[in-house]
Amino acid sequence: MSQQDQPLPAGALDARLAGYRFERDALGRSAANVFRLEAGGLPTLYLKVEEAGAFGELADEAARLDWLKASGLPCPEVIARESDGGRNRLLISALPGADLASASTLTPLLRVELLAAALLELHRLPIASCPFDHRLEKRMAVAKARMQAGIIDETDFDETRLGKSAEALFAELESRRPGREDLVVTHGDACLPNFIACEDGFSGYIDCSRLGVADRYQDIALACRSITYNFGEALVQPFLDRYGLTALDPAKLDYFQLLDEFF
């Protein structure tokens, strides 16, 4: 951890942000509040704020952004962190362009191809170099803890699962667990809004708090769902073609979408 990544004393971040205008970014579904910060003559920044607690993700995100940048892949720079016991704050740089769900200057086909290429680059990183373990044994333990803490939003389940309880879905997770994992370095939340691009091409990965070694379907499943939601099912196949996945595993696809209900 570099000196600039050390948590700041409570309140020290406010002085650093003097003069910036704050605009709430409402696109993401993270538990953290996200603000875009702008000021004349100063670089655009993003500030994330979350309640401190057992399931906070900002420290995880900072660690993963540092690792991803050190691995040579594009992502925001961690500028500062702060925790006062009641809330955590993370200040990061902005990337050029717009997220792949909103980048209207690019065609939907180009956007899904950029998503596939970005995932390929990430998945080619050596898993031995990644210190973050998100294999099923670890992720299911976290999913169970989140369920037992009562923080699973059952009203936000996918349409096919609405009306079921978190306990019923967790029983499905246990009974349908794949026998083998095809491990790669995954983003963990590979939805279109978490990848940034401009007209010159891919700019970088954002919202990386769940990055870690996991089955590649952790990313493939959420990417396919996001593409269907944003552009329609017709663009799923071009995404798979660009990624190079010749035979889709429907059972794994559904399983990792089911797992995502807990996060």
Automatic annotation (TrEMBL):
Keywords: Antibiotic resistance, ATP-binding, Kinase, Magnesium, Metal-binding, Nucleotide-binding, Transferase. It is an enzyme of class 2 (transferase). The keyword ATP-binding applies. Residues 24-252 form the Aminoglycoside phosphotransferase domain. Transmembrane segments: none annotated. It holds the Pfam family APH. It catalyses: kanamycin A + ATP = kanamycin 3'-phosphate + ADP + H(+). InterPro entries: AGP_Transferase, Aminoglycoside_PTrfase, Kan/Strep_kinase, Kinase-like_dom_sf. Its EC number is 2.7.1.95. The active site is at D189. CDD domains: APH. Mg(2+) binds at N194, D207. PANTHER family: 3'-PHOSPHOTRANSFERASE, PUTATIVE-RELATED (PTHR21310:SF41), AMINOGLYCOSIDE PHOSPHOTRANSFERASE-RELATED-RELATED (PTHR21310). NCBIfam families: APH_3p, APH_3p_II. This is Aminoglycoside 3'-phosphotransferase. It comes from Rhizobium leguminosarum. The lineage of its organism: Bacteria, Pseudomonadati, Pseudomonadota, Alphaproteobacteria, Hyphomicrobiales.
